[in-house]
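F.,

This is the one I mentioned.
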């Protein structure tokens, strides 16, 4: 999988390049650019699958680059920024992920995994829209010991890691033990309105009843369960919740 890095700060480009080389074996960095103009030329030349895109840059922002390609954008985008106030706007541009600097290695690897899984299963247009459109399938096959159970995305309230298994909680009060890891389903559900709020919890944003501030930030789901939100994911979660129509 090919990627390019677009960032006006030389140190940030170098650090991200090194992280990709050291921790993302499935990723090939084919070019670096210091501005939107350089980035457009690089993208047109290299045709990357993924673009790591800084937001706040001189003259033009990272959003300008996406506006240049419009609805025909042929690559997936992971935004990188030192500022969390852009997260809401970033997700409106259908970014696969939003990495806040300094970039966390685990979050980088997860973001790359999401892109790779989507490229195997979706067209570029489906990647940007989450597969919503005419004839879109609204069910997921959950793997159990007995076989497969087909469940509508909107019927899943939350998923909780149980070692190498995942507990899936449904709107009808039923719970299922799935023979796949939480990470496996995160890569699929992230494009269907789900968000990983903690290493052990993936939630349906449409099933959030309220956000609770305190020593621990919590979300209360429609089934009454209160789930801890990790500090690093708090701002991105709030922006995603604001974006829900």
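My design for it:
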């Amino acid at each position: 999988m090919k990627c390019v890095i677009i960032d006006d700060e030389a140190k940030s480009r170098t650090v991200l390049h090194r992280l990709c080389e050291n921790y993302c074996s499935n990723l090939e960095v084919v070019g670096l650019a210091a501005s939107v103009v350089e980035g457009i030329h690089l993208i047109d030349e290299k045709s990357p699958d993924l673009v790591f895109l800084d937001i706040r840059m001189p003259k033009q922002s990272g959003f300008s680059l996406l506006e240049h390609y419009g609805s025909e954008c042929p690559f997936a985008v992971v935004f990188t920024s030192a500022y969390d106030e852009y997260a809401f706007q970033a997700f409106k541009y259908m970014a696969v992920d939003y990495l806040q600097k300094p970039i966390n290695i685990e979050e980088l690897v997860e973001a790359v995994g999401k892109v790779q899984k989507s490229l195997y299963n979706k067209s570029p247009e489906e990647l940007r829209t989450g597969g919503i459109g005419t004839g879109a399938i609204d069910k997921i096959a959950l793997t159990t010991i007995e076989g497969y159970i087909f469940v509508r995305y909107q019927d899943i309230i939350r998923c909780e890691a149980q070692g190498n298994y995942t507990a899936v909680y449904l709107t009808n009060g039923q719970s299922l033990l799935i023979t796949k890891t939480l990470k496996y389903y995160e890569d699929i559900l992230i494009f269907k309105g789900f968000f990983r709020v903690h290493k052990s919890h993936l939630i349906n944003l449409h099933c959030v009843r309220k956000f609770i501030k305190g020593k621990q930030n919590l979300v209360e789901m429609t089934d009454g369960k209160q789930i801890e939100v990790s500090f690093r994911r708090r701002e991105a979660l709030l922006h995603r919740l604001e974006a829900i129509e």
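The radius of gyration is 18 Å.

Talk soon.
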